[in-house]
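Can you make up a polypeptide sequence alongside its tokenized fold?
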Amino acid sequence: MKRRQFIASSGAAMAWPLTARAPHAAKIPRIGLLGVKSPNSPHLLDGFLERMRELGYEEGKNVLIEYRGSNGRADRLAGLAAELVRLDVDLIFSNSQGLAAAYQATSTIPIVSPVILDPVGDGYAVSLARPGRNVTGLTTIGSGLVAKRLELLKEMIPGTSRVFALRQVGLGELTTSKLTNETNDAARSIGVRVKILDVRNPEEIDAAFVTISSEHADALIVLPGTLLYNERKRLGDLAAKHRLPAISTNREFVEVGGLMAYGPNVPDLFRRAADYVDKILKGAKAGELPIEQPTKYELVINMKTANTLGLTIPPTLLARADEVIE
């Protein structure tokens, strides 16, 4: 063997074990965020990311995040979910509006949602205690909540007889059916008439209020939904413009001028959802992590809005409020 060939072959032989012994670079987990980056609700994503940092994750260093926003348009979510699946993300984090699209796109990638409206009813879980599929997180729906909100409206405005309900299109079929039935049953039980109006995107909200005003509604109830949550400022402004008492599910609606809200603290749910992401990235299976329910429901009243509408809030209702915004 020629000297040059010997040296070349010896070098290759010597290099091989060094390469074999070199440590493999650790795979950085990649999370797909579907529909949760909203300009109308930046605090929700901020709370989630803050909790992720508390758990030791730093974006770009030990976790990669793929953001896919739909700008409130449900028709874009299926394509965005499919895109995340093609990227082979390790986990998808989505709100209630994007959950259906994510679940249809994959049965293997874990999905975490902080606001699953009806996990069992919509087929995302076998049970809350043991979901059994690839979806877990927290649920915001609870038995009797729509009835409770209508009762609060009736207590605030005793003469209420005609109420409109805004319903978001694009939720799960069974969730929509359950909300509709619960709303109608609650209306009958307290002696009011309810008419449900559907909205598919932000542009349809203005038209809905024109209809509500023309039919002389006494009050409005805003049903749960990501689109309606994100558009709470528009809802509050339109309710004030049409001098319409309105109740929603979340305190943020009251903070921007809505009259009243009764429901869970959504920012807290987003923070708590980060713990689910942490557990799954560390090896836990989504189907084995129990879906949690809110631990507290808040009643928040905007006194300034009540005064503008000429309403006198009963002292008993004020005494039960968790917060009264002056």
